[in-house]
Amino acid sequence: MEKNKKNRLVRQVSLALLLTVAILQITTIVLMGTGFRGFDVGELHEFCGFSLFALIAVHIVVFRKTLKAIFFPKN
Length: 75
Known about the structure:
Layout: H1 2-34, H2 41-62, H3 64-71
Helix pairs in contact: 1-2
């Protein structure tokens, strides 16, 4: 039972971080498009991109059983 709580917490945290970083990535794209020069948006965009890539990899590892059931169902 304790393992299920831990797995659920990891899933919730990874989804929350993934959503947050995706929103930040979209925000940096909009800022770069408008020509905002308040701070180095390019560096923030690069950081968000690498973080998004890493979180997608973590998401795949954490949800591997669910993803396997969705994409490769047993008939």
